[in-house]
């Protein structure tokens, strides 16, 4: 069965990407913390940057999610949107 995605709620998409990018940044923070702790600039700005990464990623996910959804809605109006094909899957036993 084919379905077509014709509209994305920009605010909702921004919220979803905010949470998504925030979660991704929490995975990356320990790696950045190790680099900041053992890199050539061991103290100061590196540690502050590591703390601000989740906030920055989440905020950028929100802003760019809203922009991306609005652009998608505009283009989907011209082209008809993205088509998806779904199939029913029997439940696993």
Features:
69% helix, 9% strand, mainly alpha, 93 residues, 2 strands, 2 helices
Plain-language structure description:
There is one protein chain. This protein has one domain. It is built from two helices and two strands, in the order βααβ. A two-stranded antiparallel ribbon has the order 1-2. Helix 1 packs antiparallel against helix 2. The longest helix is centred in the middle third of the chain and has 35 residues. The two termini are 24 Å apart. The mean pLDDT is 84.
Mean pLDDT: 84
Main sheet makeup: 2 strands, antiparallel
**SSE order, one letter for each helix or strand:** EHHE
Number of beta-strand segments: 2
Radius of gyration: 19 Å
Low-confidence stretches: none
Shape: elongated
- The CA-CA distance between the termini, in Å, is 24 Å
- Within the largest sheet, what's the order of strands? 1-2
Give the helix/strand class: mainly alpha
Helix count, DSSP H or I runs of 4 or more residues: 2
């Amino acid at each position: 069965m084919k379905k077509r995605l014709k509209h994305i709620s920009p605010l909702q998409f921004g919220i979803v990407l905010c949470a998504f990018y925030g979660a991704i940044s929490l995975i990356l923070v320990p790696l950045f913390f190790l680099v900041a702790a053992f890199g050539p600039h061991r103290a100061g700005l590196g540690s502050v940057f590591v703390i601000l990464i989740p906030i920055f990623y989440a905020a950028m996910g929100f802003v760019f999610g809203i922009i991306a959804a609005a652009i998608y809605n505009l283009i989907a109006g011209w082209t008809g949107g993205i088509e998806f094909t779904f199939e029913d899957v029997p439940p696993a036993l």
